[in-house]
Predict the 3D structure of the following.
Amino acid sequence: MKAEIEIDNYLSEDEKKELAQDVFKEMCRNYFRSKDDPEAELLRIAGNSAYIITIDYLNKLYDKNIEEIIKEKMIKILNNDEKISYELFHKSYGYGSNGKGLDLVEKYLSENKELVREKVIEAINNFEYSETVANEICSQVEEVASKFYDAVSRLNDMIIPKSKQQDNERD
């Protein structure tokens, strides 16, 4: 024998809503109590919900599916040499991470320092300098050498007491 109860005879619409809300709240409490890190679980669910809601909203805004738009944008970026170069070789400056290409370039440069050094020296030696460029390079090297000499002198004055310097000069 099967007994059927018509719930509409016993509960109003508001009572049914309140009962459903109470049952849902209790299920949520039990679910989160069962987790090792309830706060992390709540953040995960909120993040997933935000993603789903955002994608659904964006899909409604556009005639095309948002995934199709993203695919088209990705293809456009891949076909744009300047943009792809940036993505591959950008420096992070403390935000995010370097582009993978930059990390690889730095790695291979580090592994091949001697070869790079040889090629730079070869390029310098084989470059045909104009007189103006040669004079400017000489001027810059002279200025750097002078600043270096002055810095060494100041360090020497700070490290070695004056009396020892005078003794060394007499010898």
Q: What stands out?
A: The mean pLDDT is 82. The helical segments are 13-33, 38-61, 66-79, 81-89, 100-111, 113-126, 131-159, 162-170. The two ends are 123 Å apart (CA to CA). The chain is about 75% helix and 0% strand.
